[in-house]
Structures are given as structure tokens and as C-alpha cells.
UniProtKB/TrEMBL annotation:
Presence of the UniProt keyword Nucleotide-binding in the record: yes
NCBIfam families, sorted: lin0512_fam
Pfam families from the UniProt entry: Lin0512_fam
Protein name: Lin0512 family protein
Listed InterPro entries: CHP02058, Tubulin/FtsZ-like_C
Keyword tags: GTP-binding, Nucleotide-binding
Protein source organism: Desulfotignum phosphitoxidans DSM 13687
Lineage, highest ranks first: Bacteria, Pseudomonadati, Thermodesulfobacteriota, Desulfobacteria, Desulfobacterales
Keyword Ubl conjugation: no
A Gene Ontology molecular function term of the record: GTP binding
Amino acid sequence: MMNSKRFIVEIGTGIDLHGEDFTKAACRAVKDAISKSCLCGLVEILGIEDLNAVSVDIVVASPKPEDVDLLQVEKMAPIGKKTVSSVNGGMRVAGLCVPNFATDCDQIVVANAAVTVSIPELKS
């Protein structure tokens, strides 16, 4: 396997206010993380022409990591060779059940994401 170096690590938070949907919160956390960065340095400084050549490692943390659909989370990253994992973390807090949004739920679900973009190690 080719060696790589981290280019950026970005952190995001996602919330599902109604529905207790851990995947939705995790996807929103990834979207929050990647919405904070323009990776222009990949092209303009490093000269990477194929953005799918970079590696994108996504770690999401939620109170029920087993309920996160990793394929949905992976789709949030528009570039790169992706790896996705789900770990215990995030939080739940008391919310409000609104039947128009979802039934039988009164918890707000918070997820966090760490998105790391790595580049192939350049040869000297």
C-alpha cells in the first residue's frame, strides 16, 4: 500500500431534532465538516489532477454507532477513496415529539464527524 500524508482534518456536528435518526445526524455531521474547507491546495499547490486519488477517512460518533448506515455516510464525501467507520460518542438530549415530523421520539440526536483527507506521499 502506498504511504500517504494527511492534508486536512475537519470536524463537524450534525443533529436530528425529530426522528432519532442516527444516520441523518451522522450525514449532517460529515456535511458540516466538509462544508468548511476548500481543498484548492490539492490542485493549485500539489498539482493533483484526479481528486479521486486522495484518501478520505470518515469517522462518525453517535450514541448508537450500530444504527448508522455507513453507505449513506460515505455518499456525503464527493471525492476520494473513502473509508467510513462509526464509533460510540455524540449525545442525546431531551427534545420534543412532534407527530408531523416523526412518531414515538422525544430525543434530539447529536453526532460528530472527523473527516481526514490524505494525499499520496510525493516522491522527491
